[in-house]
Every structure is written in C-alpha cells, then in structure tokens.
Write a structure and sequence with these properties.
The protein has about 210 residues and is α+β, with helices and mostly antiparallel strands. The protein is built from 2 helices and 13 strands. It has 2 domains: about 35 residues; about 160 residues, Jelly Rolls (Sandwich). The two termini are about 15 Å apart. The chain binds calcium ion (CA) (3 copies).
Length: about 210
Amino acid sequence: MKFASLIGVATFSLALLSSVASASIIKYDFTDVSHLGKSDLGRVTSFTEDGLEMTVKAMQRRDGGWKNRGHVIEDGLRRNARGLGVASGQHDNWEIDGSGRREGLKFSFDTEVHLFGIKTWFGDHNDDWNLRVKSDGNWSNIFKDKDVKSFRAGDIKGNQFIVWADAQNDSFSIKKFMVKTKSMVSVPEPGSLALIAFGLAALVTSRKKLV
Ligand SMILES: [Ca+2]
Ligand SMILES: [Ca+2]
Ligand SMILES: [Ca+2]
C-alpha cells in the first residue's frame, strides 16, 4: 500500500461514526423558588430545563373530561411545602385537591419522554394521587390512589401526563417532575477504530521503509 493511500484509509475510517442513544435525566424543580407565598402562574405556564420545554396546565374534571380551568399556583410559603398546585377559585386552596371539582396538573412535551419520577408534598396522612398518561395518541390511567411521596416511575412513556386528585380528602402539591430523554450521540464504530489502528500501524511501517 502506498503512503498516500494509507493516510486515506486512516482519514476515511475516522468518518465511520455511528449514532447511539444516550439517556439523560431532566429535573423540573418547583421548590426552587425565590418568592414567599403565592405566585399565580395563570391557566397555562411553561418551564424549560436543559433545553427541554414543558407546558403545565391547570386542569379540572368536568362532564367526565378534563378541561384547562383554574390557575397554576407556585407555593413558596413554607420551605418543606413548596411546589405547584391548582387554585380553582378565590376560596379554593393552592393545592391539587379533590374537594368540589377534581383538580390536576397536566405536563406536556413536544415529543415523547420517559417519566423518571414525581415528588409530591402531602397535606396530611390520607392524601394520595392519580396518574393519567397520553402515549401514541391514547390516554390511559396508569394508577390510582398512589400514597407515595417520592415516586420512581420505572419506564412510563408519553408526551402528556395528568397528576390529579380524586377525593374530598386528597390535597397535595408537586415538588419535582423528572423525565428521561434519549438523545443520539456520535461515536466511532469499533470496526473503524480497528481500521484506524491498522492504518496507523501500516503508516509507521511504510515510513520506516522510506527512510
Ligand atoms: Ca386547589
Ligand atoms: Ca385518592
Ligand atoms: Ca387529606
């Protein structure tokens, strides 16, 4: 093999890259607030973390379906109770509660993500929450009456998630919402690494011969 063609092999093999999936966890932390007390974020708001935008809507269950009603409330009053809730009217509490109309928060993404975990704050010992997920265009109820404050999802895939309260005595807020995204990164293929090694070895040999 000629010297020039050996350089060609080495250069060409560098271009042999393949794409592999790499997962990263994105945390939306609603306890990280600087204000004290109530901040009314309106019916629809959004948060961006690590370049991923998430839309959050206040929801109410009406006539058997979910409607964008009420306001998203960011509670900054007490350190351990900070989080996102829903206020449906002037006298309604700041939490997601099932007293009167059932409330929930809808978290939406442009693309499908994997739910990694949800952290909630409970008002008292009998609180629990429910999860509804939209995946491939279909809604399904994932579970009801989850009385876990720090929930690890395993592998729940979707692009919309509703966390909601279903009973008079349920009242909670959401401290953290965490998702896992898969992005593609380029790495050299093992085969091309071998080619580079071969190219370089051959290069060294031929340089020696030239001397
Ligand atoms: Ca409420
Ligand atoms: Ca319940
Ligand atoms: Ca309760």
